[in-house]
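User: Can you predict the 3D structure of diguanylate cyclase? Sequence below.
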Amino acid sequence: MTLHEPTIFVLLLLGYAMLGLQLATIGRGLAGGESLRRWGWGNSLMLAGYLFLLADVAAPWAGWVVASNGLIVLGEFVFVAALQRFIDQRRPPRLLRIGGVASALSMAPLMLLPTPTRMPIQSLIAALPLLWAGWLVWRSRGRAERSLRPVGLMLVLVAVALLIRCGHALLQPQAYVDLSQPNPAQILLEITAFTALAGSGFGFVLACAERATSLLERQASRDHLTGALNRMAGGPLLERTLQRARRERRSVAYLLLDLDRFKQVNDEHGHVFGDEVLRRFVQAVHARLRASDLFVRLGGEEFALVLPDSDAAGALAVLEDLRQDCRALGLRTEAGRACPLSFSAGIALSPQGSVDADALYRAADAALYRAKRAGRDQAALAGADETIPR
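Assistant: Sure. Here are the predicted structure tokens for diguanylate cyclase:
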């Protein structure tokens, strides 16, 4: 099998140029903008590196080889930095930056070695950042975007091709005396580099697009202040919960919670402190939720809590735990004044999902106002004449 190297290098240049154009066009509109910019820098370094390789094919000179190898390795480290930034949402470690610069600079003294000796060392150096990238994607597989997995896989494929060339150069050094002669390891590496390195870039753009979509969905379904579900998202989820309760013949408890005298908190301490109270309250509730529970901010200081497979006793137990959690918050104003937090609650039940969402809300709302009229900081059960004191 023969390979026309100038053709491969031209294809690589076109691939990186197309990716660079895509990054420049859509990078600003996607989530992970800083990570995309870093990937764009890596893409530019790769583009320049393969341009120097093409120059070496046209007019052989050791300087072209040093520049191309250095830029390609540096580009790989920049790709890793972009992945680390995207996955961990923090600045890449200093070791990564130092390693990238040192690896790129090492290409110059390596040119003093004979090609059969130099080739396995260069291959190993170039493989290490790509293996690092694969490890980053692997360790984040449970929380990162699914479209990031092919990115890690393609980068690891290039690393494997480099390691194969490293082993081939160690076992058959005579194959690297004249690089103009056909070499199966070289062919494998160049084909893999063409398909995988450029493809991983497009995959990274897809991962950023996936994150942007997830953020938009979250913004559409979550209250921007507290992170609780908003009313628009909560309605369909409640309907789905009731449908499942009907199928499985289980009860659903629907609770309306209203923070006591919250208007007074805003009036006396300001809306900034009031917002912090809401956030802390929601955090306390979220810490108690099961995966199947729903917590919705209906508006202002009113919230709905949906407890699948729960009866009145279970709902009351949850409310008591929440009361203890609210007392333990230890809220204080900027002036150091204690601000105890309490809430009133109305409870309505849907046995086997037989009570629909509108009826649940009306029943829980009536019970909530009965609890508030009885003195607040307590709960009332719909259909019962008495409130349940704290």
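The longest helix spans residues 184-221. Strands lie at 229-230, 252-259, 294-299, 302-308, 343-350, 379-381, 387-388.
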